Each structure stands twice: as C-alpha cells, then as structure tokens.
Automatic annotation (TrEMBL):
ATP binds at K160. SUPFAM superfamilies: Protein kinase-like (PK-like). Keywords: ATP-binding, Kinase, Nucleotide-binding, Phosphoprotein, Serine/threonine-protein kinase, Transferase. Belongs to the protein kinase superfamily. STE Ser/Thr protein kinase family. COT1 subfamily. Residues 131-430 form the Protein kinase domain. Residues 17-32 have a biased composition (Pro residues). This is non-specific serine/threonine protein kinase. Residues 431-498 form the AGC-kinase C-terminal domain. PANTHER family: CHROMOSOME UNDETERMINED SCAFFOLD_135, WHOLE GENOME SHOTGUN SEQUENCE (PTHR22988:SF76), MYOTONIC DYSTROPHY S/T KINASE-RELATED (PTHR22988). Its EC number is 2.7.11.1.
Length: 498
C-alpha cells in the first residue's frame, strides 16, 4: 500500500515527457513483389544494391577489401582443415598402434605443442628487417639472390628478390606464382626448400635453403668435361628431381646447369622455377619471342656464326667465346636458350617432354664440354635448335660410349619420339642404378666448406659491386598490387622455427 502511494506521488511530481522530435521518413524502398512478400513476410524490406554515386576510388577500395577478406578467410579455413586432418591422422595412428595409454598421452602432448608453435608461426609477420645481408651470390633477369641470416635465430638462407614492377611489365606474374606454389607444395629432397615468402610495396621475397656447393654450371666451367661415371651420377639425380616436379603437376621449362644446385653433402637439387608452368598449359612461348626481336636489331653487316660444313659444329675459338660469355648470358634478361626444346620455340604446344630434351642437352655438355647448339649469340642458337637434325653432332675427337650417345639422342629428338622418365631410368646407361638410395651414395664431389656462410663456390667476383641494400625501384599501384595477393607463405618444420 505504501509502495503504491509512493509511486503515485513520484508520477505526479515528474516532469511531463517531451514530445518526440520530428523525423523525416527515409526514401521508400522498392516494394517487393506480392509473391516475395508472401514468401519472406510483410516486414521484409528490399533495397536495390548499386555502386552508382560512389567514386571510382571508393569502388576500387571496396573491391580490394573484398579480395583481401576472401583471401584471409580462405587461408584460415584451409589451415583449420589441415589442422583437423593432422589431428585425425594422429588419432588413427595411435589407435592402430599397440602402446600404453601413457605413451599415447605423451604423443598427444607433443602434438599439441607442435600445433601451438604452428599457430604462433602463422601469426608472426615476416619482413625484410628480420634478415641481414651477408653477400650477393646471384643475379637474374628480374632480381637477385642474396645470402642472408635471420637476426633472431642466426640461421642462414638464400633470399631471392624480384621486382614487382618488372614482373608486371614483362608479364611474368603467372610464372612467379607457379614458382611460389610449386616450392610451397614440394617436400621433395630433390627440390630446393622454401621456408618463407613475403612482399613489400617494391619487391617479392623468397627465403629458401642455402645450398653452398654452387651450381653445375660452375663445375662444368671448372672441369670442362666429366667422366661417364660422374655424368651418370649427376644425370640420375637430375632425373629424380625432374620427376618430382612433374609429379607435382608442373613443367620446369628452364632446366640448365645454372639451375642445378649442389648441397653441402654434394647431392643435387633443382631450383629456379621462374619459367615453370602447370601441365595443363599447352603453349607459353612469349618469353622466347624476344630472341626473334634480337635478330631484327642486329647489325646486318655482322655475319652469323660460321658453321663447319663437314662436322656441322663450331670452331674451337667460337666454343671458347661461348664459354667466356656463358655467365654473362645467364645474368641477362634473355637468358640462355641452349637447353630449350624445339617445340617450346615453335609455339605449337608442349608437355613435360620438353624437360627431358633439356636434360639430354646437359648430358651432352657434361661429356663433350659445350652445349650441343652453342653459338656466339642466342639467335643462332635458336635457329640451330629449330633445325636440330642438321646440327646435333657428336665430335669424333671425344670418346662417348654407345649407351651414352643413344641416351642423349633418345632425349634430344622430336617430342613424340622422346623418352620419358620410366624409359630413361631403364636405359642401359643406368644399368645397376639404385634409384631409391641415390642420396645415400657418396657423391663424386663434396664441397669443402669453412663455415655455414662460405660462398667460395659461387662466382661472386663476377657480379661486380652490388650494394648490400636493395635498390629503390619503381613502386606498383595499389590496384596492381592486388595481383600479388596470397603470396605469403611460412613453412612449419616443427623443430625450432628459423
């Protein structure tokens, strides 16, 4: 009773409520159809979605945000699926194994610890500031390769840098994405391992394992020729490396001695997938059209390479010139076409067979001392490869076994007649090869290293004075930068991330 009278007095003494302010009604939305009203309810409001009235800059920003959000959630969902898959595989393994519960609990705790490290690694932002340059060890058409050391762990890596603007200008985006995807997918011991990939407004960065033994080209320039036993070992390892790339669904397309690296134990690994492509792609020879453009720009007064009409080969002086220019050509934007298959130049479509032609050309150089179609300029090499039946010649002064010559000719032939991986491995030249134990065989050459940063097997003196800091290059616009979305990658090894 007292409570009711108190509430009444408070109500009488209270100020009257102000009248609500006048609010203009919003524009009437488009009325839904009678059918949709019945389906969605009478209170459903339909708005016409349109970008009319928005500036082009606002539309571009909205599109960029949408793409970035989609990429972020796709990566997150894929990571969650992979994590659940790993958990399921562990549970199946533990349930199938006869072990006590305590041992199973230890395995589960170990798994949880690794997953925690994995999640921490995914949250970590990797940038150029995390690495310090030790030395520039390579130079390519679109960037450099540097020996770097991670500042927090002191681990040593090879860092490949690529200029974004140059990649877009030369229409090489598909190739660098293929290289990044291939390296991210690969766990093969025959392919150089990628640990991180990231970017900034100017450059793309690939942080890969450092292989201190240099490359096969350096060895060929030093020793001139290999014996058949040494050649057999290196070709066998190259076969497994090429096979690993093909098994991932890619064609390398640029297999040459420069891209065959030697690890600290003397074994080979395949690198530089900048021209690689998926097996579904049948023709992409635009990169090589510049060789024809070179022909148009040449001095007409200059004669082409004079070919010996009897042996159809180059003179010793011309071979010496080719060897002297070999390294310079590797650093040029055109590169060296000496190992490219004819079908790639002819733009009529090609498959993984083109990589076996390249291996045949490398095997020829290992045994003879120079590439089969070497010339003083790329244009003449191009012509010789197109008309290869007239120019593939084995010099009489060089002794080559019948098995070796037959294998080379079986790889360096028209694509329809060319040997594949299984046929090459079963060739008499490789009789007795232990294909499953090659990495356990003592190699013919093991690099003598003084430290983990030893670069003595790299021709760094030929690079000239390259600054320790990356050059300030052209910056790409924010709209074009979207082309590199999803480039970031971090490999989880589960043993003290570097």
């Amino acid at each position: 009773m007292e409570r009711s009278s108190l509430e009444a007095r408070q109500a009488n003494n209270a100020s009257p409520l102000p009248s609500p302010p006048t609010v203009q009604a919003p524009p009437s939305p488009r009325p839904p159809s009678e059918t949709s009203s019945r389906q969605r309810g009478e209170d459903y409001v339909y708005f016409e979605r349109s970008t009319e009235g928005f500036s082009s800059d606002a539309v571009a920003r909205a599109t960029a945000t949408k793409l970035k959000m989609e990429s972020f959630y796709k990566v997150s969902v894929d990571a969650a699926i992979e994590r659940n898959k790993r958990r399921t595989e562990l549970e199946q393994k533990l349930n199938a194994a006869p072990m006590p519960n305590e041992a199973k609990e230890r395995e589960i705790r170990k798994y949880r610890k690794l997953e925690s490290q994995h999640l921490r690694l995914r949250r970590t932002k990797i940038s150029l500031n995390d690495f310090r340059t030790i030395k520039v060890i390579g130079k390519g058409a679109f960037g450099e390769v540097r020996l770097v050391q991670k500042t927090d762990t002191a681990k040593v890596y090879a860092m490949k840098t690529l200029q974004k603007a140059e990649m877009l200008k030369r229409d090489q985006l598909a190739h660098i994405r293929a290289e990044r995807d291939l390296l991210a997918e690969s766990t093969s011991p025959w392919v150089v391992q990628l640990f991180y990939s990231f970017q900034d407004p100017l450059y793309l960065y690939l942080i890969m394992e450092f292989l201190p033994g240099g490359d096969l080209m350096t060895m060929l320039m030093k020793y001139d020729v290999f014996s058949e036993d040494v050649t057999r070992f290196y070709m066998a390892e190259c076969i497994l490396a090429i096979e690993a790339v093909h098994d991932l669904g890619y064609i390398h397309r640029d297999i040459k001695p420069d891209n065959i690296l030697i690890d600290k134990n003397g074994h080979l690994k395949l690198s530089d997938f900048g021209l690689s492509t998926g097996l579904h792609k049948t023709s992409d020879g635009d990169f090589y059209k510049r060789l024809l453009d070179q022909e148009k720009q040449r001095d007409p007064a200059r004669n082409s390479v004079q070919v010996n009409p009897i042996n159809l080969t180059m003179s010793r002086e011309q071979i010496a010139t080719w060897k002297a220019n070999r390294r310079k050509l590797a650093y040029s934007t055109v590169g060296t076409p000496d190992y490219i298959a004819p079908e790639v130049f002819m733009l009529k479509g090609y498959g993984k067979e083109c990589d076996w032609w390249s291996l045949g050309a490398i095997m020829f150089e290992c045994l003879v001392g120079y590439a089969p179609f070497c010339s003083e300029n790329p244009s003449d090499t191009y012509k010789k490869i197109i008309e290869w039946p007239h120019y593939l010649y084995f010099p009489e002064e060089v002794h080559i076994s019948q098995e070796a010559e037959h294998l080379i000719r079986s790889m360096m032939t028209w694509a329809k007649d060319r040997m594949g991986a299984a046929q090459v491995k079963n060739h008499p030249f490789f009789f007795g090869a232990d294909w499953n134990g090659l990495r356990y065989i003592s190699p013919p050459f093991v690099p003598a290293l003084s430290s983990i940063t030893d670069t003595s097997y790299f021709p760094t003196d030929e690079l000239g004075n390259v600054p320790d800091q990356l050059d300030g290059v052209e910056k790409v616009g924010s709209d074009k930068d979207l082309a590199f979305l999803g480039f970031t990658f971090k490999r989880f090894t589960g043993s003290g991330q570097g």
